[in-house]
Amino acid sequence: MSSMFDRKKMIKRYKIVAYAMLAVGVIILCKVVYIATVERSYWMEVASFFTKDSVEVKPVRGNILSSDGRLMAGSLPEYRLFVDFKAGGDENEDRDSLWAVKIDSLCMGLHEIFPEKTAAEFKAHLLKGKAKGSRHWPVWNRRVNYSTYSEVKKLPLFNLSANAGGFHVEKFNARKRPFGSLAKRTIGDLFGAKDTAQFGLELSYDSVLRGKPGKIRHQRIRGKKLNITQIDPVNGADIMTTIDVNMQDLAERSLLNELKQINANVGVAVVMEVATGDVKAIVNMTKCADGGYYEIKNSAVSDLLEPGSVFKTASLMVALDDGVVDTTYTVDTGSGIWDMYGAKMRDHNWHRGGYQVLTLPQTLQYSSNIGVSRIIDKYYGKNPEKFVEGLDRVGIREDLKLPIVGYAPPRIRMPKKNKHGQYVNWSKTALPWMSIGYETQVPPISTLTFYNAIANNGTMVRPRFVKAVVKDGQVLQEFPVQVVKQRICKEKTLREIRTILEQVVSQGLGKKAGSPSFKVAGKTGTAQISKGASGYKSGTVNYLLSFVGFFPADAPRYSCIVCIQRPGLPASSGFSAQVFHNIAEGIMAQSLKLDVTDARDSTSVLVPDVKNGDLVAADYVLRRLGIPTNRNWSGSYADGNPIWGKAKRETADVVLARGGGYPQGVVPDVKGMGARDAVYALESRGVKVRIDGRGKVVSQSLAPGRPIRKGETCLIKLDL
């Protein structure tokens, strides 16, 4: 056995094999360390040629359109500009020599495009990136539009291929609103560079607008970088809103003028189409610290305030519909002060002796607190549940379920009793004050919807903000008119209430809302705004001044509500009625279809005085009036891109001359322009605008041609 197996010889052989394997292991380990340290850069570069990675491709966000298809919010390309100082390889002598020769002319060109930075500053900035050998060095620290990107692309070095000059970009889809802040709070916005909706329709319809992202794979093959599509992105669809741009502009200007005159804090104006419930205009203005008015909150759908006297219509409608009173009913209002279970109820003219005895229609015409509250307390005081059930029936308590983030439904409490039959959330004064619009909280949009139902022959329709979802010219989804209540009251009640609301404007306190050209029906409202735990009497009293109604009263087409919050006296609903009047007159004037020849006579000035500004828009109007213009410039009104210039009236025509353009970062010359063109030209460059007067711009506080500083405000003065 021992002769066949020599233990010593076998152990020696095993040791030789073990030492050999150990030596090989040590050699491999040394090679790994050598590759990981000495040859690391070489092998990393080799690996980069074969790297595969998947990158998400963002889809183009859908547009938000007005009711006639005009763009209210859309995605336009913006670019970040970069330089790769290692383009073409680390040892690219041709590239380095080009940079040495062309860098001065390149920096001069950049200074002309971006005057905020000198050529020397640009040169120092670029040389710093070159010294670092950066492959992604920013040329400019902000995004630029396509026009600016095209100018930069023409500069020396940057006009070469990316491999030769190193110039490259990152593309973004930026959200733009061609009409500026018009209906901003309702249209909505995104969070800066992120494709994340903040509020408004942008947020409510985010899933429709967003689309679906795609994926591409980057792969280097033989020194070339290929993009291989894995999943194609699906662009978002467009939504067509009910907003009418002209009505929106009219409502905003009418409200702003009044807010500035009376130094109000908040203003709301909403215009609704009676038959469909389409919201044609919605304005929400809040006074900010700088004294300007901006859309920072959608108060029309979210403000839960006591509506005041506009609520009285619902109260009397319940009484008329239940048949407990009729239009011949009379009520004694005394000398303007009435004791209601220990609390003093006052009419607005109490210091002049009150109204004494009033008929039921007169209680609305003169907005008598005592008259309405006494009627409701007499017939519903012992059974307040029946009154609130009546409010449910007429629809003022309805949750409209609006697709606007922040919408709050009305809060009108129902009386509740405990097991002993005692009210747990009710007092004797609750019903009298509820009947005149206190102890309730109703957003303006709900009040308007109720009055719109009165105008719509008693049919309540849900306010509609979006009509359809469209994509590539095809309608993907329609949002039909939705009926909330087929009938809010009896036919007889409806006729009586509509007649009374007409009398409020023709004979009562709502005369300022009326028009000599058509009939208007509506109701005024004034309410003190409670300050929470401090109540109504904490320091300066704030008032909610309202007017809500519809026009033309004999064949209603539009309903409208105007609410103004103002500190201190005078506190008159006439302020809101005046805004309503201006909106109604403007809308009805827009609907007139007259031939221009009807306005001509032997003394007419046939060639109008045209303002400076957008030549495309001016040419569009002039040609449809039959007035010849020169066309030594190109442009299409349908494309919506402004061409800036000046207009000069001649004997029989108008000469439109394209003016010298100003770079994006420079204050433009807006003198001679109308308000709209001037505001667009300034705000599109990031300058805030304040307007004084009307007509043409005669002066501007920021000198034309100087660089724009961030956060600047330009005051433009207009005169006829």
Structural class: alpha+beta
Number of helices: 21
- Portion of residues in beta strands equals 15-25%
Range of helix content: 25-40%
Taking the sheet with the most strands, its summary is:
8 strands, mixed
Flag low-confidence runs. none
What number is the mean pLDDT? 83
Count the beta strands: 31
Give the termini distance in whole angstroms: 127 Å
Seen as an oligomer or otherwise, the chain set is: single chain
Written overview of the protein:
With 720 residues, the protein is an alpha+beta fold. The protein contains 21 helices and 31 strands. The strands form nine sheets. Strands 2, 3, 4, 5, 6, 11, 20 and 21 form an eight-stranded mixed β-sheet that branches. The chain has a six-stranded antiparallel β-sheet with strand order 14-13-12-25-24-23, sandwiched between helices. Strands 1-9-10 form a three-stranded antiparallel β-sheet, with no helix packed on it. The longest helix is centred in the N-terminal third of the chain and has 31 residues, at 7-37. The model has no long low-confidence stretch (mean pLDDT 83).
